[in-house]
Amino acid sequence: QVQLVESGGGSVQAGGSLRLSCALSGSPYCMSDMSWHRQAPGQEREFVSNILGLGSTTYADAVKGRFTISQDNAKTMLYLQMNSLKPEDTGMYYCKSDRCDSPWGQGTQVTVSS
């Protein structure tokens, strides 16, 4: 099991930046292979990015070139650097373990105004 606490969301204007954080605790096995997801109002939750234990990363086409996922060496923190934000990036952002079936965290709200 892994416990997840997201933070760092906020309200920004289009073109701005935010850095999301996800504090991880629990099984070290579960804290490798992590991902970020988001859910816009009235929409289904969607994949944003993931990072594997050896550091390889994947991004959704909508965020490629603008967002960067990273994890600290101890794998206790997961980050999502979001640059050149667009109104369509608005939503609740969640981190998740891709190895373990743990409950979703409370998420952190990102609001981008035009």
Index terms:
114 residues; mainly beta
Q: So what's the overall shape?
A: globular
Main beta sheet, described?
Answer: 6 strands, mixed
Strand content: over 45%
What is the radius of gyration?
13 Å
Oligomer: single chain
N-to-C series of helices and strands:
EEEEEEEEEE
Strand order of the largest sheet: 2-10-9-4-5-6
Give a written overview of the molecule.
0% of the residues lie in helices and 51% in strands. It contains no helices and ten strands. The strands form two sheets. A six-stranded mixed beta sheet has the order 2-10-9-4-5-6, with no helix packed on it. Strands 1-3-8-7 form a four-stranded antiparallel beta sheet, with no helix packed on it.
How does the SSE layout of this entry go?
Layout: E1 2-7, E2 10-13, E3 18-26, E4 34-39, E5 46-51, E6 57-59, E7 67-71, E8 77-82, E9 91-97, E10 108-113
Parallel strand pairs: 2-10
Antiparallel strand pairs: 1-3, 3-8, 4-5, 4-9, 5-6, 7-8, 9-10
How do you describe this structure in short?
With 114 residues, the chain is mainly β. The protein is built from no helices and ten strands. Helices cover 0% and strands 51% of the residues.
